Amino acid sequence: MKLRPFCFSILLVTLLVQPLMTLAADGSKKEEAVASIEKHKTELIGLSDQVWRFAETALRETRSSKLLADYAEKQGFQVNRGVAGMPTAFVASYGQGHPIIGILGEYDALPGISQKAQPVKEALEAGSAGHGCGHNLFGAASLGAAVAIKELIAAGKLKGTIRFYGTPAEEAIGGKIYMARDGLFKDVDVCLAWHPEDKIVADVDSSQAIVDFIVEFKGKAAHAAADPWNGRSAVAALEFFTTGLNRMREFVKPTVRMHYVIQSGGDVPNVVPEYSKVWCWIRDSKRTGVEDVFSRARKIAEGAALMAGVESKLTIQGGDYEMLANIAGAKLIHANMAWLGKIEYTAEEQEFAKAIQRATGVAPKGLNGAVQPLEPPKKDPEGGSTDVGDVSWIVPTLHLSVTTAPEDAPWHAWPVVACGGMSIGHKGMVYAAKALAATMVDLFEDDKAREAVQAEFKEKTKGEVYKPYIPDGPPPIPRP
Ligand SMILES: [Zn+2]
């Protein structure tokens, strides 16, 4: 109630400053959603900061997922923990019936990039993990948006179900793919997600599709000098394989990316190595492109084994679909972000960002808190893959990016960890929560807007069969 004058003043400003902006749904409910996020702001920042400090990696997010699930439960959500065979995955639901609007949250960190919340590179705990992709902010913001919608449903102002998905292991393994395999998204009408970035934009661009696989070679050991003719080298096969893969680079589309690391390459030179192992990723703009290059890589592995006289074994570990963008949804998001306006930064925050930019050798432009114009989709996505891509092929998925780090600063690296643990990250997190909540109000209230999103999805997936890259059996839960 206390927030009412504030809400009215925003409404007035909106009407005066943006007379041409039509908000699809009842504006006052959006203001209530924004006010709810303001009300819970300190708690949300607390959640984000705790997850930042826990910095737990893929499928080890025990404390992070418990923290978020406990908070959801305290807010009145019905929480189902340990879904899809993953102890750190959960689903929190509130409300009844359709529309069912889903919102994704992540909370896994990256190994080895621990960093203090300061603009100078220094580990918080040497050798430990850090939130170099800002997933501490991702989880807290999405949950904050879900709570705001829950409060509107509880007050009888929105009808339907809000469902928060606690999705572990985005950086490795792909928790959402196992959740998809268990059918956890199948009754959802529309799903939303966001990601920390160096700009604010309603996303119309895709991401890269990827396949993650291992090739192992098994030969025969022998003394490398006394009787090498009795040996068959698994490392020779590995070298034939990587040579073939590297030779193939010339004959693939420029959108293809191939990377590998050698995980086992013999122990000592005087033994003909009987075992070798290489871990590979192949990416392209579309799943069909990945399939093509992957089938050639498979033959190269077989050929390499043949040449070396050894056995080969290829094992798929996982993979992601490319993001299926939804333009109707992006328009909704964009209108809501234009309504929210830009993020304002203090001089200290800009200086923090510029210090990072100087330290990492990029132009010291500071932070960009402006809402970027909605532009037509690029033909090919920028580098990177996400398991949100898989969800986007099952359910219409809306995606936005919000500034949480300095422009052009390196990602999956210390600058993102640093900003994610202080006010720059907090501001982006709160902004994302508000943009997601306002957009969800549209999706609950405005049947036409929701149907346009669903119709576009139906059109784009016509004739497609979702076939994930996923090994049989349970998710690879690490030993404690
Ligand atoms: Zn990420």
Can you describe this structure?
The chain is α/β, with parallel strands linked by helices. It has helices spanning 4-17, 27-54, 62-74, 135-154, 175-181, 234-248, 287-308, 327-340, 347-359, 388-392, 414-420, 423-445, 447-460; strands spanning 78-81, 90-95, 100-105, 161-166, 190-197, 201-202, 209-218, 257-265, 275-284, 311-320, 397-403. Helix 2 runs antiparallel to helix 4 (135-154) and helix 4 (135-154) packs parallel to helix 12 (423-445). Mean pLDDT is 94; it is low at 1-22. The structure holds zinc ion.
What is the helix tally?
A: 13
Bound molecules: zinc ion
Residue share in β-strands: 15-25%
Structural class by secondary-structure content: alpha/beta
Classify the helix fraction into a percent range: 40-55%
Instruction: Give the overall average pLDDT.
Output: 94
- Which overall shape is indicated by the principal axes computed on the Cα atoms? globular
The ordered H/E elements are HHHEEEHEHEEEHEEHEHHHEHHH
Overall radius of gyration: 24 Å
Distance between the termini: 47 Å
The beta-strand count equals: 11
List the helices and strands and how they pair.
Blueprint: H1 4-17, H2 27-54, H3 62-74, E1 78-81, E2 90-95, E3 100-105, H4 135-154, E4 161-166, H5 175-181, E5 190-197, E6 201-202, E7 209-218, H6 234-248, E8 257-265, E9 275-284, H7 287-308, E10 311-320, H8 327-340, H9 347-359, H10 388-392, E11 397-403, H11 414-420, H12 423-445, H13 447-460
Zinc ion binds at residues 133, 135, 170, 195.
